[in-house]
Amino acid sequence: MSMEKNTMNPDHPRRIVIAGGGTAGWMAAAALSKTFGECIDLTLVESEQIGTVGVGEATIPPMIIFHRLLGISESDFMRATKATFKLGIAFENWKEKDHRYFHSFGKTGKDHWSCGFQHFWLDGLARGHNQSYDDYCLELVSAEENKFAHLPDEGMSYAYHLDSSAYAKFLRGFSEENGAKRIEGKISSVNLHAETGAISSLTLESGETVEGDIFVDCTGFRALLIGDALGTGYDDWSDELPCNRAIAIQTQSVGNPVPYTRSMAHDAGWQWRIPLQHRTGNGLVYCSDYLDEDQALERLLGNIEGETLRDPNFIKFTTGARKKQWVKNCVAVGLSSGFMEPLESTSIHLIQRNVLRLIRMMPFGEIHQTDIDEFNQQAELDMDTIKDFLVLHYVANNRTEPFWERCRNTKISDKLKHRIELFRETGRAFRQSDELFAENSWIQVMMGQGIMPKSYHPLATKMRDDEVEYLLSSIRKQVSKTVNALPTHHDYVRQYCGAADV
To answer: Which residues pair with 295 in a beta bridge?
Structure first.
């Protein structure tokens, strides 16, 4: 397919049109406008009348890199979005009722080039060292103690809890400063080239036509461009991830914000609790086969703290992914590309991945199918590996309710089956290519869900008892010493990025 030649230069700027605002649209606008400047003519079309899903309030560490690439001040961004720091997720009642484990950022212990720290910890258990695996992770212990600070040499791995609406507003200002233009209006039709079938323009309800060379679909679940106009299908993953409804509600804060997200399982799904500077985000994710809307709302309202600040937001979704995320001259970013529920806070990350991937593969002149194919291949790998990680939380459980029995009996991918069996038999966990979640994430969740290794690497057995004692105790002491010296998370946030109106 051929588009205009040699349009990536200031004399003939490439026209990029972003359909839809919200977090996805303005993240795309911010990155594209900052990176390409006058080499592109960037227009974002959105309507104030169309609300956003707005559940992406928890993030993961790669967002820090995104902001650094754009030159965004962390403290300014956090102040504008009333953000707090996040060191991980506390999972409650997932393995079984009254059981709790923590999936933290960062590493646990110290790895050897031949094998991970978990092998030395397992050998220590066999020798009578009964301290929890958790005690060897700085981020995890800091979270549990409600401590936080930036450490030298990026010694603390963290992310954010943020107000997603305020984040979109913040990025809008940033984008417009870098040359992005915003048009207010609803899209009434998507117009295609008669010959190529690519998108030529958008027509708004006002009658205005917005032409472009590349279109970025940020229209959410509606997928007006890549789905409706271009007819790109959707892979339904409900068999593996059966939750299909969510209710989100905001409440007043009743205490100081903790540096972690809470994920609380219930009989037909789970509930999130996300602490910001000025309020708390709450939501219930569930499967409508086992719970109706009234029951779900009652359950959510019965397990929140503080007065509600607005009416609940009811969300219907189908877990899955667009079959292709770049089709002709249209790239899907955000919910138009797929959705895998907010369990591990991956929604904003997947926005970031597709935006940065588009920047890396931005065509100079004509759009080449090889670029499109590579983009789609990478995006598919991202989605598949994240899906497996999420499925792991559901399939490994000892709960007795029908929903959880269904999850436990889910047919899982061969890759996930292999990961589980490999860890169960040998204690080994490996990161695949450029996948999001590293070894420590898989280890923490597998052990948290009750999958314990039957054996471990023989190298660990070579150490003398005194060497094992020294290794384990020195790591724990260093973690404890560092955490003890940290300020409270609340005090640090207030000093570093406290919002004036909180």
So the answer is: none
